[in-house]
Amino acid sequence: MVNRDAFERVNYEVPGLADDEVANAPLEQFGRWLDEAVAAGVKEPNAMSLATCGPAGPVVRVVLAKVVDDSGVVFYTNLESDKAADIRHDPRVALCFAWLPLHRQVRITGAAAEVPRSEVDDYFATRPRGARIGAWASPQSRPLDSREDLLRRVADAEDRHPGDPVPTPPHWGGFRVTAGSVEFWQGQPSRLHDRLRFDAITPGALLSDPAGWHRVRLAP
Ligand SMILES: Cc1cc2nc3c(=O)[nH]c(=O)nc-3n(C[C@H](O)[C@H](O)[C@H](O)COP(=O)(O)O)c2cc1C
User: Fold this and answer.
1) 136-173: b or e for each residue (b if 16 or more CB lie within 10 Å)?
2) Which of 21, 105, 157, 193 is the most exposed place for a label (fewest CB within 10 A)?
């Protein structure tokens, strides 16, 4: 049995998400909550769970959102990883940001598509050198013989790319998730939480376009 204290019930005594206060498009509401997460000191507020539909069933893991704009949410990864294989198998994905100190969650469903190489290169160039070398060295999701095996691969990558710039590995890239729905969840007392979901009226609706989304309140 694990520590029971970890399962302590938390009551969410915070202001709710009122219909007349929510933004009229998902991007603005997301931006407000992200700012508030930063102001509240949430660490890595851009961390999100990414669920994919793999050939063997659903899989979830955390990745970092690097862009959230009108056309969706971008994350970067190894294109030969399990998650990339899952997305090639089925582009439908789900994202979940959990800003627990604020008792908030944002869930996004959508479809993932590869980011153009020029955009990948621009982002890759901003990564610290160690992360660029690591992207060359790590066969993400594949078995390693040992930690030393990984460090040997890093040393090899250092030898092959001694200077700057370090080019983008062909097996490294990004995915943009085009949203079909965005749900804002605000914890409330007695588990009577607020849930407001924006559903895209047409696929690919711009996240800042109030005319592109239908809004519905859901039971908690
Ligand atoms: C806070 C956090 C941030 C992460 N960010 C990323 C990321 O941006 N890209 C990535 O490929 N993996 C990231 N990971 C690692 C993934 O969760 C996962 O272990 C890895 O991508 C392999 O997943 P896969 O085998 O399902 O492809 C992150 C993990 C954590 C806990």
Assistant:
1) bbbebeeeeeeeeeeeebeeebeeebeeeebebbebbb
2) 21
